[in-house]
Amino acid sequence: MWNIQIEDVQAIDLESTTFCNLHCPECHREVDKVWMEGILNTTHMTKNNIEDWLKLEELTSLRELKFCGAIDEPAANPHLFDILEYINATFVNRDRDFFIDIRTNGSLKTTTWWENLAKLLPRNHRVVFGIDGSDEVSEIYRIGSSFQKVIDNAVAFINAGGIAAWQFIEFKHNQHQIQDAHNKSVELGFRAFSVMSSSRDDQSGEIEHVHLEEDEKPAGSANTFNVRVNATQKTTIKIMCENQGLKSDVANGNRILINSLGIVTPCCFLNGFVHMPIAYNKNKSAEDPPFRFEQEPEWDAIWQKHTERKISLHHYTLKEILAGEFFSDIQDSWKSDKPIGRCRDVCGKHVVDVTKFWTQNK
Q1: From CA 188, how far away is CA 154, in angstroms rounded?
Q2: Against a cut of 0.85, is the pTM above it?
């Protein structure tokens, strides 16, 4: 049985839509676009979905909702405010310390919309804006965004009382701007600034990644702001699921993910896997073979055994899914000599992403 049952769930990631306005070259939407077309820009999570799927009386330990997935832009969901109002009336009403986290590219909507969002969020919240430069350089990766519009929206949110953070993905083309971006984040009122170095291989042929070393600091940082490193290194082949256990620098608490298709997965990494076969099946003819995960045989075996129905909230309750065989089989694979490759790579011996946070001067 999966270690985390319904009463143990502390946090849920919500991929609340399959819509996004950008075309970031390393995004799952772009890299696997040919497999994903059947679901992209088709579905939004609604307030009724949340009401049906998340039962207050069952989720007794739930203290956080994070609007973040693999293919979504939360601001693209027209039902977001209705969902937040329902969350305020239920979970926040039960626990005033309930936390809402939203990850956004910040380039949609008007400044008035962002002001209203700040007023709607509970007192414990954070909106993380993905801004990969100190000026229009950010648009090199965030294809389709407007740096100035993102800044205008973020400032409107902050000035209306919103708590904002600036997340900077470092590449070769923007690493010289880390210091300037940090300075701008302080000037504009962002509460936190972080630099992420992704270790994904370049899929576009145009974006060069940078891998931060354990003690590396941004150029010129020593005399301008203090550095506190929170970097996770995975050094053992034993799989320790980062979404199970007490929340710490190396764990996310007891967390699961629900996407707008109503599919429940343990994390965003496995969530990315379920998008492709579901999209494939939408356009599949009677003569087409079933979708196979050729590069992930261990995951493929589990998927072929159960398919998406067993982890769909349109067919089972969240309680039933977490207690079911699909989740149990995932966990059992970790104890075998052939664990799911994605689980091994992310929560085993390999480092996938390193994020470092810099404290800001008071």
Answers
A1: 9
A2: yes
